Amino acid sequence: MDNILENLYKEKYGTVCETVVKLQGSGSNRHYYRLSGAAGTCIGVVGPSVDENKSFIYMARHFKEQGLPVPEVYLVNGEYTHYIQEDLGTVSLFEAIKEGREKGGEYTQEHIELLKKTIAKLPSMQFKGAEGMDWDQCYPLPEMGRASIQFDLNYFKYDFLKFTGVDFHEFKLEMDFHALTEDLLSDSESTFLYRDFQARNVMLKDGDDPMFIDFQGGRRGPLYYDVASFLWQASAKYSSALREYLIQIYLRELRKFKEVDERTFYKNLNLWVLFRLLQVLGAYGFRGLFERKKHFIDSIAPALQSLEHLLDTNDFQYPYLIKVLRDVIALDSFDLGDGTRVQLREPKPLTHSKPYASKFDNKGPLRVRVFSFSFWKGIPQDESGNGGGYVFDVRCTHNPGRYPEYKHQTGLDAPVKQFLEKDGEITVYLRSVYKLADAHVERYIKRGFTNLMFCFGCTGGQHRSVYAAQHLAEHINKKYGIEVELLHREQGISQHFEPFQVKKTEEILQLGNRQLPQSLRLEDF
Question: 72 by DSSP, 3-state: which?
Answer without folding.
Answer: coil
